[in-house]
Amino acid sequence: MATAPPCTCACGAPSPSLRCPLALPLPFASPHPAVRLAAPPLLARRLAVSRPRAASALEALVLESDDEETEEAGAGLFQGEEWAATADERDAVRSPELEVFELEELPEQWRRSRIAWLCKELPAYKHSTFTRILNAQRKWITQDDATYVAVHCLRIRHNDAAFRVYSWMVRQHWYRFNFALATRVADCLAREGKVEKCREVFDAMIKQGRVPAESTFHILVVAYLSVARRRCLEEACTIYNQMIQMGGYKPRLSLHNSLFRALVSKTGGTAKHNLRQAEFVYHNIVTSNLAVHKDIYAGLIWLHSYQDVIDRDRIKALRDEMKRAGFEESTDVLVSLMRAFSKEGDIEETEATWHWLLQSGCELPAQAYICRMELYARTGEPMKSLEMFKEMKNQNIPPNVASYHKIIEIMAKAREIEIAEKLMDEFVESDMKHLMPAFLDLMYLYLDLDMHEKLEQIFTKCLGRCCPNRILYTIYLESLVRIGNVSKAEEIFGEMHKNGMIGTNAKSCNIMLRGYLSAEDYQKAESIYELMCKKKYDIPVDSLEKLQSGLVSSKKVVKPPKPVSMKLDEEQREILIGLLLGGTQIESHAQKGVYIVNFKFQEDSNAHSVLRVHIHERFFEWLPSACRSVNSESEIPYRFSTIPHAHFGFFADQFFQKGQPVLPKLVHRWLSPRVLAYWFMFGGFRLQSGDIVLKVSGGNIDGVERIVKSLQTQSLTCKVKRKGRFFWIGFQGSNAVSFWKIVEPYVLDSFASCTEESHNVGSDGLQDSDTYYEDDTQRHDREIEE
């Protein structure tokens, strides 16, 4: 079998002596056996070439992982020294070798010509034309021919084209799984940052009962880490864990270090949930006899210091291991120790660590002073905490947001009103952001001391500087009820219920119920009671007894909540349709005819963070008890599901077929302004130019055309573009303005500020168009009841 050097041309038809770069040397573990394509009439010839040049920043990151670069010293966590790499770790390992035939070996001239034509023409076409061309070759093309085309696309770095050829191949009746080809396609896609497409091929390998190559695991983890989204960090951890537990591979030190660095790259409050995964990475480094960098120890101690319950034994063990390894405790480690000791109120250990920090001669960080403030607050010496804050300023260390939050919280809990107000004014004048926690601390202080006038003033001041939230309104509502201003409280409650950014919950409803009962307005109290029963909110026994006695005196009897079948109201139906169009999933339950709605929101999106709270409140009664028992908005998960129920069956039948998303045939009748608004908020965004884009989840061009025609009846002209598996509907210029006018009444307040936009649009709304989804869903509900 002859081997020739690769052709250096980057495009055009392949020459007869084409050599494809399919055996890329990668520095991982041991090579897998070569996978060869069988073809009896021909003599197979393996084409192996050296590593290609890096074509992208991500590919360069993967290729350069062999050579650890030295970073500048003293820059903080994971910076300062070269992370060690052993000689064994640098041994090059190849991916599974892929065998293809040379073009000149094909006996038929017409076949050679057609394959060469496909190699030349296919990369230039988009998805729809691409697929039509391949479909036209079904009568003669074989798996070997299609493999050659995919290989050529990989060589000239048209990885998307190679993926399309591969995806088309797997749908053909003659296709037999080719592990080596799947590995090559997955690796090339991951190098280019196409994590979703790579993951699709990766999952297909596992479904075939094959364990992906170590190179695929490694490159996919690196690709996920290169994407700045929290969800991608979770996926990187999943692939890393599968690499060890399912594949039995031993990752390189650079991969361990990269993942660990990502786990501790967030703020402490967010990163503390990554402790278990970080400990797993550390365990793998140790059991693989790899060198443990000093910042691994520092990172683990840092994560432990942010836990709600401090594990002092584990921290001590890490410090001992750090000393045995010959590493000194850095400033980051000492501050982490102060944080851990101060949480437990251990004055002796905290002050001892503080003196070590002073003796180190380093620049004192503000976080060290914050730890001392918290220490003395826990030991009942709030004025000493104030002295720490003043000392920090005297040392020319400018206070940061965290220090202001901590000292105002301490002074408010100590009921030092004048000091807290003075610090708050100083904080506001500093023009720093994130004022809300400090405002809330002051409002709680005024509420506890019955200083309702000052509470109202600080409430107004907070609205002028911060985005309002439910906690802020709930405190003010409680204040109004306590002073007996029920009419104003009713106005605030109505504003909360109407404003999707704020919403109402069990606590606000109970406050309003107490207000009506204290005012002896039993009719309105009964309406709040019915709302709470519908939402499955808990009602205090004393309020229920007071309502009962009040209604008895009015010759009425309070009705206990009826165990009637639940139904989606009109608003919930429209919201659900909009979310389904944007990509929300419905899955079947073990019980036949019962379905579950899975709400998933992006953790790195401010817009989705706002929408998450709103959807949780609107579908509260449909959530399981575990999802309903949250004390604050921050505890609401970014992924939650409804209870299994038959009334979701209508939407499952309309939007899904065999588990795949589709567009309902009646979708054009359901595009009300509210549906469009929630579709936009969940699956759309605004460009800096002001144009609006909506992602269509599932469906084909016929369904999209029905949507376009329906939008045209509302005087909305749009353009449709297909990218990958999704269609995108875009509104440009005046059409974007018209679209916004339609959906604005239903878009959450301040939601526009969370999206990408460059200018404001008008606020005049258009009249709602007629929709018929309600008749369709009610008909389905009647069928269930029957």
TrEMBL record:
<dbReference type="GO" id="GO:0000373">
    <property type="term" value="P:Group II intron splicing"/>
</dbReference>
<feature type="repeat" description="PPR">
    <location>
        <begin position="365"/>
        <end position="399"/>
    </location>
</feature>
<feature type="domain" description="Homing endonuclease LAGLIDADG">
    <location>
        <begin position="573"/>
        <end position="737"/>
    </location>
</feature>
<keyword id="KW-0677">Repeat</keyword>
<dbReference type="Pfam" id="PF03161">
    <property type="entry name" value="LAGLIDADG_2"/>
</dbReference>
<feature type="region of interest" description="Disordered">
    <location>
        <begin position="759"/>
        <end position="786"/>
    </location>
</feature>
<dbReference type="GO" id="GO:0045292">
    <property type="term" value="P:mRNA cis splicing, via spliceosome"/>
</dbReference>
<protein>
    <recommendedName>
        <fullName>Protein ORGANELLE TRANSCRIPT PROCESSING 51</fullName>
    </recommendedName>
</protein>
<dbReference type="Pfam" id="PF01535">
    <property type="entry name" value="PPR"/>
</dbReference>
<keyword id="KW-0809">Transit peptide</keyword>
<dbReference type="InterPro" id="IPR052500">
    <property type="entry name" value="Chloro/Mito_RNA_Process"/>
</dbReference>
<keyword id="KW-0508">mRNA splicing</keyword>
<dbReference type="Pfam" id="PF13812">
    <property type="entry name" value="PPR_3"/>
</dbReference>
<dbReference type="InterPro" id="IPR011990">
    <property type="entry name" value="TPR-like_helical_dom_sf"/>
</dbReference>
<feature type="repeat" description="PPR">
    <location>
        <begin position="505"/>
        <end position="539"/>
    </location>
</feature>
<comment type="similarity">
    <text>Belongs to the PPR family. P subfamily.</text>
</comment>
<feature type="repeat" description="PPR">
    <location>
        <begin position="469"/>
        <end position="503"/>
    </location>
</feature>
<dbReference type="GO" id="GO:0009507">
    <property type="term" value="C:chloroplast"/>
</dbReference>
<keyword id="KW-0150">Chloroplast</keyword>
<dbReference type="GO" id="GO:0004519">
    <property type="term" value="F:endonuclease activity"/>
</dbReference>
<feature type="repeat" description="PPR">
    <location>
        <begin position="178"/>
        <end position="212"/>
    </location>
</feature>
<dbReference type="InterPro" id="IPR002885">
    <property type="entry name" value="PPR_rpt"/>
</dbReference>
<keyword id="KW-0934">Plastid</keyword>
<dbReference type="GO" id="GO:0048564">
    <property type="term" value="P:photosystem I assembly"/>
</dbReference>
<feature type="compositionally biased region" description="Basic and acidic residues">
    <location>
        <begin position="776"/>
        <end position="786"/>
    </location>
</feature>
<dbReference type="InterPro" id="IPR004860">
    <property type="entry name" value="LAGLIDADG_dom"/>
</dbReference>
<dbReference type="InterPro" id="IPR027434">
    <property type="entry name" value="Homing_endonucl"/>
</dbReference>
<keyword id="KW-0507">mRNA processing</keyword>
